[in-house]
Design goal:
The chain is built from 22 helices and 57 strands. With about 1200 residues, the chain is an alpha+beta fold. A hairpin with a 4-residue loop joins strand 22 (about 270-275) and strand 23. Helix 21 (about 1105-1115) packs across helix 22.
Amino acid sequence: IMNFDGLDAGMGEYPPSLHGTLEAVMEPSMDPHLNPSLLQGVELDPEGLAVTVPEAVHLMEGMFSELHSAVSEVGIPVTATHFDLQEEMLWMGNHRGHVTSFFGPTMGRHSSFQAHASDDIRHIHSLETGVLFLSKCNLKCHTRGGLVMFDYPLEEGADMHSLLMTDNNTVLMGGLQNYAVELDLNTVQETQKFTVDVPGVAIMRQTGRFFYCGHTSGKITLRDLRSFKTEHEFDAFSGSLSDFDVHGNLLAACGFSSRGMNGLACDRFLMVYDLRMMRAVTPLQVHVDPLFLRFIPTYTSRLAIISQTGQCQFCEPTGLANMADIFHVNTVGQVLMSFDVSSSKQALAFGDSGGCVHLWSDAPEVSFNDYSRETEFALPCLVDTLPQLDWNHDLLPLSIIPTPLTSTEHLLSDWSPAKATPSPRRAPPVDPEILRAMKTVGFIGYAANPRTRPRNQVPYKIKDVELDYDNYNQVPESPIGRDEEPHLYMVPKKYRKVTIKYSKLGLEDFDFKHYNRTLFAGLEPHIPNAYCNFVVLLFLCCLASSSTCWIYFLIRPLQLLKASNFLRAFRTIPEASALGLILADSDEQTGKARLGRLIQSWNRFILTQLHQETQEQEGPQAYRGASSSSLGSSGESAIGKLFGCEVENSSLCRCGKETVRSSLSLLFTMHYPEQNSQEKTIKEYDFSEILKKSICLEQSTQAWCENCEKYQPTVQTRNIRCLPDVLVINCEVNSAKEAEFWKVQAEYAFNKAMQKEKMEPAKPKEPPPPMPTEWCLDGEGTCNMEGITFDTRAEDLRHVWIPPSLKMSISKSQGLEIGSWPEGEELSTEEEEEGASVYDLVVTVPHILDARTGGNLVAHIKVGETYHQRKEGVTHQQWYLFNDFLIEPIDKTEAAQFDVSWKVPGILYYAKRNYHTKYDLRIKNPIDASVLLTEASLARKQRKSHATFIPLMVSEMPQAGELVGLDAEFVTLNQEEAELRSDGTKSTIKPSQMSVARITCVRGQGPNEGVPFIDDYISTQEQVVDYLTQYSGIKPGDLDAKISSKHLTTLKSTYLKLRFLIDTGVRFVGHGLQKDFRVINLLVLKDQVVDTVYLFHLPRKRMISLRFLAWYFLELNIQGETHDSIEDARTALQLYRKHLELSRAGGNDEVRKVLKGLYEKGRQLDWKVPESETGDGQGSPKSAAVFPSVMGL
């Protein structure tokens, strides 16, 4: 760092590490420059132990004299010395990265280890728990015994020279680069990086007012303690700075002055500054060539000035130097390279170029610190001395004779503390019978005592008995191998929980096609409450008759992308939070949530909530019913039409009083028969029989009787008056008892199928059917895809209990009748006239039990002919497995198979056959052009004078194919979660969650081209953690309706506008629209997107920023301080016009030639836009004449 030209010639051989590097190749044993006289009368220990001073040395009180000297490695220069601030130790580091510590004034060696492989040690600082060692591009922390606590590599090209502890847990590092780094020692992470002027910071000091930074240019800057900004500057020396120190109100510095052609010379005048008036006082002339200086305040503010040749002079900073105050460090011809003063100011340490450390003191009994803690030493190898035994003594007890251990067994004392620690017993689970029969009133549950256990007594058991389903979800041991993980063999790969591996580009380079080769869009699992993904998918299949804008708006984008819009609305419902349906991220990631119960509760809640909300409001129709339901009334809803079933509940008291009430039921819960304790085997039941008993439920319970005017035992029965179009069933397999019942019934059904197959004659062998993906297209023969079925063998029916089809009817005489029905058969005319209906299984939602991942939910959905006809041009029905973004076709029997050891049934949907013929399934757009007209702002302070856009007139409504410039700005709701691997690479666990904050659309043609017609700031109810002002232009308060002056709208209002533009067929022009639409959560067809990122891009080359493209092609200087979406949208439109102009002029060859020139120019400028020469920050005057009609806004 410092320039020492003109100093002693010997200094050029071993300059300090601060002033350059030495040759790395030195003789390890003895350096040729080391004066042999250094070793006269000194006995060197071969292990490098302390070298003691002859006993004849006597120290005079108050006068500094040499106390001891020690050699660490002979001939290796000592580049750093440091007195430990906590213990009586002296540290030294040499040119080869080796450090050694010496204990006390006798300098006995304490520890010695290699801190860096090759670089020299440039600074040492002691902490409470360890010691910091700074080298050129590395900071290490070791314990005082030498164990590594952390190793922090710095940026490539760093040249660090000094460090400074700013508080107990923060260190500041500076060197010969244009920045200083602040590091948090607790997390070992960089917290701030401060920019400094070249050539950097060589020396740093600190007081309660400022940071003091010494530069190689000879200047000393005083910087703010918080912002590190320069407050004052002292131009101390014309050549270079050597050292400086601060004490009280004084700052003293030594350095070099320029001597013209002769280079630099050591200046014997010390510059002294008064920090109260921030000016220099009279310089202090000394009699030595100063290299180091320190304040040694005892009774006065003494200064110690050290020269490279070992001369030391003491003087007052405001007085005159006295020749009598000079003493000499006997370096035996070597030069001094490091110097330090103890915190007690009683000891001085000098390190020379010969590898020797000299300890000087002004008292015989020296103490390095005022209060030092006790130092730990390595324990010596002690050998127990055994007592002398007198064999001739008659009373000698033989028990004192030690006996060797001959057994190989482990002793009890060898157990680890973890195994010997007592663990408390967990509370036993609640009896499943109590949970099943419990009635909840508010937040209190009431249930009868089953009296299966003694009162206030819990049996003590060594092994936990799995009584509850919470313990049941552990996967049983695999028969394949005891040493291997059982769940890898129990759960098939396609059913396991899938995760996204994020890279630097986020989701852009993740291969979703590997998991999904269908035409469906998968759902991303990283969004909050993603467990709802699969039930949301059901509405795509079942809400075909949805008639409200609300449902249309939430569900329509879902056909295209992901469920974040729906789940964001779901999180704002207070009832969902009260019912425990809103999961914390930790519960969802760690698998603590009981997904089986949770998804059934969510299914019940969402159906009820949608029914209530769609019943209260009337919106524009998305679908028009062809016929009215039997429940036709002013209060019916789309949900009620599809899932509703009018139910009659009867309550009969023992007094004979009967109460009948009617209600609407949207789903039914399965109720399983009670198992008597005397019966060891479970009886065989048909699924239709259990379903009928669950729908027409009869149970005894305590209820209030108005006739008796008290609670009485009553018999409650339920009957249905009509059949729903979609029958929703919650399976309620929530305990081991219910799972065992389901398993046994599946075994009964499988055995029946096997016996039936044996009795039937063998069928002739048929050619194999086509694969599900090989459909016959229109015009390719007479292939009829309807009824493509695969022969279902009895072996495939293992673990299947539920039938693929059910026949249901209601008669006045017998009531509800349910029975299994062959899948391919139709009802006769007589049965249809009697009101019978066939229900086909269309959806199953199982809970996957996986101990490795905590479990997950999947869905089997039967996609009908309408979808395949529209998307693939074929007539076919196919089952699909939906596991987040993993989607693949499956066989129909797999959808009904439930191996309860890992696949537990949760929800079943049965749909009435051909029920959709009642509805007109043609999608009607519920959004009209009125959404683009004038709209009031939510902001209270918004005025017309603040308007940044002009709404469209009726005559300006966009048509299909017209251009619209679009740009969006975003804010961050949740920061990215990442982990640092052991190799130093970063792995993203969960990406940051962004939310759209501003959307701007500008006219793309006509007389008002470039004038914005949408400039919406979107209010959000969720907490914003980062407004990204530098990139978005959004400031705190812009999205707050109370204080914002912007045109503030709701997310739904802006989505309606974009949805209308997309459905109209306009072409959006913008820069980076692919990423924008992904965050906005809208999927736009490729034909409707013109992205300037790809227009001006060559294959296998980098993407180019909008700012550089605007400067290169349009001579515009945009995005000066922050981004503005209006400016960006206009610029993208102009770039598109420029591209069309280039294409018309010379075709693709001309465009490619221009792009090559663009990339060549970008490489020359390092892709940075040159500063504007006009000085107005606007670049070319073109920016004021592009759209003259906009200037009036």
